[in-house]
Amino acid sequence: GPPNAKEILKDSLYRGADKVVLISDRKLAGSDTLATSIALAGAIRYCEPDFDIVICGRQAIDGDTAQVGPQIAEKLNIPQITYTINMDRIENNHIFVSRETDNGIEMVKGELPLLLTITKEANIPRLENIKFLMKYKRADIKENAKIKIPILGLNEIGIEEDMVGLNGSPTKVKNIESVVITKKYIKNYSPDEKGVFALFEDLVKNHLVE
């Protein structure tokens, strides 16, 4: 992310994170989900090569693709469980989780190491700790910071320039349009049995229900 992403990292420290790292490089500008996953997978290998679990959000609120987490798992060659709503337990090098589907809730078992994408219902973040707040409030990415937040670029994480950014992104956005939905007309129905049947008849006629 950009330098101002340090504020999110500081918030993580306030809530008890052991350490944080900012992945930032101008050559990452314009990266699509594939290029982003390549960079993040490289950072994971660099920072924690012996990880047990990688936890990602379900999807970002801008692109809304839900692709980055699964693509990271592919780059790391590990299994993945998506749409996790609860991590039940870890036992004998396996994790047992509940995941959300279109038809309900699934109970899934996965072998470690693996990647999870989680929904917002999966966890309520702990409150900021006043001790950590005082300790890390001056943490910064600047070289002379009392507590330095490390910045990693492509060289550190071992990713070639042509694998990320616009050159490494097969997704090309040709056009962006704002869609405005307008009402063509309003039809009122009487609040009685006759009105209910008329509404249902119109819904069937317009193929909105079968």
Automatic annotation (TrEMBL):
It holds the Pfam family ETF. InterPro entries: ETF_a/b_N, ETF_b, Rossmann-like_a/b/a_fold. Gene3D superfamilies: HUPs. Residues 1-149 form the Electron transfer flavoprotein alpha/beta-subunit N-terminal domain. It comes from the Bacteria. GO terms for molecular function: electron transfer activity. PANTHER family: ELECTRON TRANSFER FLAVOPROTEIN BETA-SUBUNIT, PROTEIN FIXA. This is Electron transfer flavoprotein beta subunit/FixA family protein. It comes from candidate division TA06 bacterium.
